[in-house]
Amino acid sequence: MFVFALLSLGLAAVPVAAKRTDPVLLQGAARAIDGDTLQLGDTRLRLHGIDAPEIRQTCEDNVGEAWSCGRRAALELAAALSGAEVHCISREQDRYQRLIATCWAAGRDIGQSLVAHGWAVAYRRFSPDYVSEEEFARYLAQGMWAGRFDMPWEWRQARRRQ
Question: What is the CATH code of the structural domain delimited by 17-161?
Fold first, then answer.
């Protein structure tokens, strides 16, 4: 009985897995929805392996002043998409029916770039892909790492409790 209870607790801590799908290739002009979600034609995509602050999320700069890091992350994604043809490949769908995709613009992995510049963090819960970029951004105090912020998933969780 005790072992079953421990297994149940362990399973409850496992993240909800994305649903695997056949590869989907998309390309064209895209627009930012927030810091880690984009719209490409009729398809909404969430960038693989990253989590960006929510639009309403604020961070603190190095002197403790609040600033809108969620809006800034969305602006950084918009800048990465601006004027470029975007190429995405997806193999999963999340619980909100968005495709989870790795996307490139001007030959650069967009998610990797956002994390490397401190506008998103590696979403370790789902992928280790951008951990080294996050560590580099943190070391150089890039973007949000120049001050203090709540991890996006912690910020969302705190809002759900309110």
Answer: 2.40.50.90
